[in-house]
Protein 1
Amino acid sequence: MGVSSNGNIDLTLMDKVFEKYAAQKGTLIPILQAAQSTYGYLPKEVLKLIADRLGVSLGKVYGVATFYAQFYMERRGRHILKLCDGTACHVRGTPILVTAVEDGFHINPGETTEDGELTVDIVYCLGSCAMAPVAILDEQVMGRMRPEMLVRQVKKYLKSAQETTES
């Protein structure tokens, strides 16, 4: 996703984005969205490029990017596990699920595994309270989760996704 194996960021991928928004005003957020879509997160080099091309301060670009929860400043995993911690889910066991994920994958919420495969996020209410506690793994909703079941299903999913990628 716009990042080479040696970690270099291909800034030329932003050329089409800047062309698309060249004649428009107030395009910082759409440009940040396009950048994140391209790179999977907002690398510092890209934020600097956006500031330079838009003629605004890096502080303004950084301020907008950190204000909105939709933007990520760190590389994210290829797969995203969201654990709901809304009231119903919290009462029915999300804290135990969080501990199971921490133990099973050696990461805390908001972190990504060392291999870059999995990022875990805490979210607040997914609207599936009747199935609490709820987790979402890459858009797949999993309800009435128990710690061992969640870890087992996530490991199975990651293994299956890796096998699909390798073939």
Protein 2
Amino acid sequence: MEPRQPLPPIWLISDSRNDAVLETTLARLPRGSGFVFRHYHLATDARRARFDVLVRQCRTLGHMVILADSAEVAAAWQADGAYGRPDQLGPPAGLLRLAAAHDAEEIAVANRANADGIFLSPVFATRSHPDGHPLGPDRFRALAALANAPVIALGGMNAARAAELNWPRWAAIDAFLR
């Protein structure tokens, strides 16, 4: 099942670790990549101001911009879509809705919510969750097969791992810091 519009193959996800290099990193990504703005570490006003700066750059580079928030907030901020837990995506509001999933239950919830895409993680070990249990390629593929929407591999991903996994869409936080 394909979303209302094609999802980019490469995604950058923001957080406090990569904030200082986001402008440089966004400029290095292939035109038309995806960007998920999280920045949970900022207060609402500062978060909105940082989003406004980055969304302008993304628009000039042809990148898709997804806000980690409700569809209503994403629409108000003029993002292309919303990202979050599948049970909290809310109604479509004319935007893409991308769900975070870690297991079969969350994929089922994303399917029932008619999510346009699913970030499935962690595929490999990651600095974000050092004590987590990575899915590994086989479990990732088995879970991805349950999804009704395109799946984006997340967790310990970089270009080499994406090639090894032979998966069409992947996302990272740290991979672009190098």
